[in-house]
Design brief:
Layout: E1 5-8, H1 14-17, H2 24-29, H3 31-46, H4 59-73, E2 78-82, H5 89-98, E3 107-111, H6 117-125, E4 132-137, H7 144-161, H8 163-166, E5 170-175, H9 180-188, E6 191-195, H10 208-216, H11 221-237, H12 244-259, E7 263-268, H13 274-288, E8 290-292, E9 298-301, E10 304-307, H14 318-323, E11 328-335, H15 362-379, E12 384-389, H16 394-415, H17 423-437
Helix pairs in contact: 3-16, 4-10, 5-10, 5-13, 11-16, 12-16, 13-16
């Protein structure tokens, strides 16, 4: 059976881009460290310090999630998803990618990721509350952005359907045992889905955090988990030096620490994957940007991730990547097969210099744009890699999520930092609360 995704790293090597790429000697030298990083990640999973690697195995929770979504889909037309960060970006990314595969599901509407009053009012004003389900997602139940949006949404819901009926319109995805939202849900009688204690928000897309909204939309979450499982199983079985996600992590950490290539660009050539780039931006930045290493020493490490979009950003960012500072590593995502067979009309033959376009499928055009950009970057000694997916389907999206989660976990160990905390974010939260409570 073909793999759902493939990582082509030949243009990350010295043979392709000279001294700006990784050498075979360097990769050989790092083999033991990479294997140690893999072993440490697996040990964290086995000791239940981190649970995200096991998400594809949680079949009972997946069934519970599907059944609840099916029950709610019989009652409501729209699901309002309220979350921020990892409680928002993963579901957004998967929904944008997979909405075309949805069957008999609800319309998803996302809010809570910002406190911009104009944006929130526009979203809420457009809802028919009698036909709307609210999925509030917060592990602690104290995150300002989604919880403040929830309080407004709940008030409007109650005004429309009454307090007694409002509870059946609300599903809380929160901590399994404690927290403000858990207490409120138990008091009010909301349906509740658990966020595992050992899975942080940005690694939670394959838990009910991401899977429940997607199931509500009619997307096959079992196939998402199947794709993730394929990548996970390869990671467990392969040597680290043969595993694509491990190699991705190694190339990027070495590029940052050895060659000052600290800007990491993800550039899918598919508009359906634009939100996926934003999900990557969060998991890479928040996991790897740290002040202290695992020994408590001040190190200030972390690459800067960029979410780009092909072919759009060939005309906005590639000029910089091609001729500006050689401090970037670019990864393209190539889609082998698009759903649409849209073609340029054959009468383009009559338009002078454009006659070569006549009859070409747009899928062929966008792939040529990706390959041409990769070739040009390589010719200019700019390292670049390519992740290839057969199509944009639940299985490949699940595989992409697991690929980058593993790569992030491995990169954290190679940097010798804790990839799972976010003290810088927490510091800002404390300061924000102080202004609001003064």
């Amino acid at each position: 059976m073909p793999k759902p995704i493939r990582y082509d790293h030949k243009n990350m090597l010295r043979e392709a881009v000279g001294l700006h790429g990784a050498s075979k000697n360097e990769l050989t030298r790092e083999a033991t460290r990479l294997e140690t990083a893999k072993h440490g990640l697996l040990e964290d999973f086995r000791k239940k310090k981190q649970g995200w690697l096991g998400c594809p195995d949680e079949t009972k929770m997946a069934e519970k999630t599907i059944k609840l979504a099916e029950r709610k889909s019989k009652l409501f037309d729209t699901c309002l998803v309220l979350g921020i960060g990892g409680s928002d970006l993963g579901a957004r990314a998967a929904h944008q990618a997979l909405a075309h595969t949805a069957k008999h599901g609800m319309k998803l509407v996302f809010a809570g990721g910002n406190t911009d009053p104009d944006e929130l009012e526009t979203v809420l004003a457009g809802l028919d509350w009698s036909k709307t389900l609210i999925n509030i997602i917060s592990k602690s139940g104290e995150t300002i952005e989604p919880m403040s949006a929830f309080l407004v949404a709940r008030e409007r819901l109650v005004k429309t359907v009454g307090r007694k009926d409002a509870a059946r319109h609300i599903v809380a995805t929160t901590d399994a045992k404690e927290g403000s939202l858990r207490k409120l849900a138990e008091k009010e009688g909301y349906d509740v889905l658990p966020i595992p204690k050992n899975i942080g928000g940005r690694f939670s897309v394959l838990t009910p955090v991401g899977l429940f909204p997607l199931a509500c939309a009619g997307i096959d979450i079992k196939k998402i988990l199947s794709g993730a499982d394929s990548v996970k199983n390869d990671f467990v079985k392969n040597k680290a030096t043969k595993d694509p996600a491990c190699l991705f992590a190694l190339f990027h950490v070495l590029g940052d620490t050895e060659r000052r290539q600290n800007i990491h660009v993800l550039m899918p050539y598919s508009s359906r994957l634009q939100e996926f780039g934003r999900w990557f931006r969060q998991i890479w930045a928040e996991s790897l940007g740290k002040k202290y290493n695992s020994d408590g020493d001040v190190v200030h490490v972390g690459p800067t991730p960029i979410a780009a979009l092909g072919a759009t950003d060939q005309h906005s960012q590639i000029q910089l990547y091609m001729e500006g500072p050689n401090n970037k590593l670019v990864t393209f995502i190539e889609v082998t097969r698009f759903d649409s067979r849209l073609k340029v009309p054959h009468n383009a033959k009559t338009i002078g210099d454009l006659k070569f376009l006549a009859g070409l499928e747009f899928g062929r055009i966008i792939r040529a744009e990706l390959k041409g950009t990769a070739d040009a970057l390589t010719a200019n000694k700019r390292p670049n890699g390519r992740i290839v997916v057969a199509d944009i389907s639940p299985k490949t999206i699940g595989a992409l999520f697991m690929f980058f989660e593993i790569a992030t976990g491995i990169a954290g160990r190679l940097y010798s930092i804790n990839a799972y905390d976010q003290p810088g974010v927490e510091e800002g939260k404390v300061a924000t609360r102080s202004y609001l409570t003064a």
